[in-house]
Design goal:
This protein has three helices and eight strands, in the order H-H-E-H-E-E-E-E-E-E-E. It is α+β, with helices and mostly antiparallel strands and 139 residues long. The chain has a single domain, classed as Lipocalin (Beta Barrel). The chain has an eight-stranded antiparallel β-barrel. Strand 5 and strand 6 form a beta hairpin. The radius of gyration is 20 Å and the shape is globular. The chain starts with 5 loop residues before the first helix and ends with a strand. This is Lipocalin-like domain-containing protein.
């Protein structure tokens, strides 16, 4: 059997790395925004905080309250956010085309709009106007 020349073996190794990276990229759910039903499941769905990152992408240290934070989205356009003993209710609207979610807390004079970076069955990533991101996992 003939041995491969060094340039042929480098080419083969490069091709293998390319296929490996392409396969990994295709399997990633990050950056994928699926339908609104992924947000609330059949009737409701609870999401828990996984991590928060700064606008620069640095991971922020989570406090116990942040680790306990939960957001439940309901099919009727309502949401409930809880963190420890504190809870907040409100309404939300999800714009699939613009990939944004607007949340209006009850009693608040203004809403908060986030870019939906990722929305799959088990991952939700929201990007704030300042560039920071909240990464949530489905429960």
């Amino acid at each position: 059997m003939k041995s491969l020349t060094s340039s042929a073996s480098r080419l083969l190794a490069g091709l293998f790395v390319f296929v490996l990276l392409f396969t990994a990229a295709c399997g990633s759910k990050e950056g994928k925004v699926e339908g609104v039903n992924m947000l609330y499941g059949k009737d409701s769905k609870t999401w828990k905080t996984d991590k928060e990152t700064t606008a620069a992408g640095d991971k922020m240290k989570q406090t116990d309250a942040m680790d306990d934070q939960r957001v439940t989205f309901y099919a009727n356009g309502q949401y409930n956010m809880s963190s420890g003993a504190q809870t907040m209710n409100g309404k939300y609207t999800f714009d699939q085309a613009a990939q944004t979610i607007m949340m209006m807390p009850e009693g608040a004079g203004q809403s908060n709009t986030f870019t939906v970076v990722t929305l799959t069955d088990d991952k939700l990533t929201l990007k704030a106007p300042d560039g920071s991101q909240l990464h949530l996992e489905g429960e």
